[in-house]
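seq as requested:
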Amino acid sequence: YTACLCHALSLVAVRIVTGRRHQIRLHTAHAGYPTVCDGKYSSQSSWSEDIAWCPRNFLHRYRLAFRPGAGHDRLQEAVQPLPPTGLQALLSTQPLGGPSVASLSDWTCSARPPAWDRCSRLQDNGPHCFHSQ
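struct tokens:
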């Protein structure tokens, strides 16, 4: 958890099997937590506050993995670090607590995002109700 401009923020890593970024935006907004600087799924006032410190929608696909097709067992992977605008936005936040300091450091001090086993899992407690394990 971090804070910026007097607002609490959560940095989450989402792992999906199929789908598009649009679905992540839609589902998080429906649960009451739109992505930062999302002009489509957040209120006008939220978007206006967000754009003051982050000039783009803060949703970044940092890893894409796939199998090229039948007969190809080797997983293909592409990794892209945060763009400069995303990195600047993260660096302008204040982590709230020890685990948040470590997590923020993982995302801002490395060219490669943290491995999945370093991310806390969310437990599904019904539609749109997730809690950290």
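Helices lie at 21-30, 44-51, 84-91, 98-108.
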